[in-house]
Write a structure and sequence with these properties.
By secondary structure, the protein is of the alpha+beta class. The protein has a single domain, classed as Roll (Thiol Ester Dehydrase, Chain A). It is 21% helix and 38% strand. Strands 1-2-6-7-8-5 form a six-stranded antiparallel beta sheet. A two-stranded antiparallel sheet has the order 3-4. Strand 7 and strand 8 form a beta hairpin. The two termini are 13 Å apart. The mean pLDDT is 89.
Length: 146
């Protein structure tokens, strides 16, 4: 059950990260998960014209964060406790699309699978599993806890 739609999630991200230079845009939020799109600028490129690893990790972490809050509601204190990423192929210097699927939401943690695709050819460029620690006293009731 989704607690926040894309418009609400975009407003939440703006509030949570007001000085962010990384323009994430939530394009989907439903029972299957979330999807974000991001324009990649020259500052996110490494020598050789490929998108940097830290940029891909930031996107993976943000997608996981959005996947969690889309389900439990606007919780600023939801934090990353683990992130593992595999770089599948060299991404071209172009926009990215990333999906996040909540695999499990418990009382204290959530596990999210993230897939990052190039907007040029829609090929998978990275895959991540992310674990988020959930606040012990949520401000929004969570109906879907396991």
């Amino acid at each position: 059950m989704v607690a926040m739609d894309p418009e609400q999630l975009n407003a939440f991200l703006e509030e949570a990260f007001p000085s962010s230079r990384f323009p994430f845009r939530v394009t989907r939020s439903d029972d299957e998960g979330v999807e974000l799109a991001v324009h990649v600028d020259h500052v996110q490129l490494r020598p050789g014209g490929t998108i940097s690893g830290p940029t891909l990790m930031t996107l993976a972490d943000t997608v996981a964060y959005v996947a969690v809050v889309s389900r439990i509601g606007p919780e600023f204190l939801t934090v990353t406790s683990h992130l593992a990423i595999d770089f599948v192929r060299k991404p071209p210097a172009a926009g990215l699309r990333a999906t996040g699927e909540l695999l499990k939401v418990g009382r204290r943690q959530a596990l999210i699978a993230v897939r990052i695709y190039s907007e040029v050819n829609d090929e998978l460029v990275a895959y991540a599993t992310v674990t988020y620690a959930l606040p012990s006293a949520p401000t929004v009731p969570r109906a879907d806890l396991a």
